[in-house]
Amino acid sequence: MTTALTRRSDRRISPVFVGILAVTAVTGWATWTGFAEQPGLAVFLFVTAAWIVSLCLHEYAHARTALHSGDISVGAKGYLTLNPLKYTHALLSIVLPVIFVIMGGIGLPGGAVFIERGRIRGRWRHSLISAAGPLTNVLFAVVCTAPFWLDALDGVPSDFRFALAFLALLQVTAAILNFLPVPGLDGYGVIEPWLSQKVRRQVEPFAPFGLLFVFALLWVPEVNGVFFDMIDAVLRGLGISDFDTYCGYDLFRFWRDSNELCSISG
């Protein structure tokens, strides 16, 4: 019913998103075939474009779930077109997460779509809207890791395998970080409807700084070490080795000297 109240143009996939998909496909093909003169550049463009695609799908999942929960305003805001330029803050939603990937190989969450929560009734619906985004990252991670845990890597070029492993790492880190019960992140959004009004009012002033708090914590060597040990354990459980993710990140940073071990393994 709520879907019918949105115009068809509000749900038409944006040419911007189609363009990002095209870059993902072309650079993925170049990585697979070895067509690119600089394989590292192809891996960089492939992983970056695919990462932006996942960010768009993350925000789309929030918006689509909100639409079916009662917030029909998301269509008019352009959130259902998968256009990243329609988000509440394009810089936070796209540019900043890409910078985090380049700086530290971490899939930090970005900005968000604005949901009119007053239109939505029921705590479960509010929680589901918040959970929909990181669950999309979980699904993306499952797709990226499928060739590994299905033991279907025969014939897969090493550069593409490394790129896929690094992309999987980004999705796993994004899912875990997003589910943290920190104000401003989706994990807190999941539990917020179940908290008292008093607690919510006390926590609300800290919401704009939640992402910065997480980012600062990850710069602490001890916290960073524990966090990535957990990420590596999850990826190993999905069949991806530390070597695969290391070489993926090494190729991604094409402007640096590549590790010879990764080249030899290819």
TrEMBL record:
**Which cofactor names does the annotation list?**
Zn(2+)
Q: Tell whether Transmembrane helix is among the UniProt keywords.
A: yes
**GO MF annotation terms:** metal ion binding; metallopeptidase activity
According to its UniProt record, where is this protein located? Cell membrane
Q: Name one GO biological process term.
A: proteolysis
> Where do the TM regions start and end?
12-32, 90-115, 127-150, 162-182, 203-220
Task: Please report the record's description of how this protein sits within the membrane.
Answer: Multi-pass membrane protein
Q: What InterPro entries is this protein classified in?
A: Metallopeptidase_M50B, Rip2-like
One Gene Ontology cellular component annotation? plasma membrane
- Sorted UniProt keywords: Cell membrane, Hydrolase, Membrane, Metal-binding, Metalloprotease, Protease, Transmembrane, Transmembrane helix, Zinc
- Family label: Belongs to the peptidase M50B family.
| Descriptive protein name | Site-2 protease family protein
Q: Which organism is it from?
A: Streptomyces sp. NBC_00180
Mind giving the lineage of the organism this protein is from? Answer: Bacteria, Bacillati, Actinomycetota, Actinomycetes, Kitasatosporales
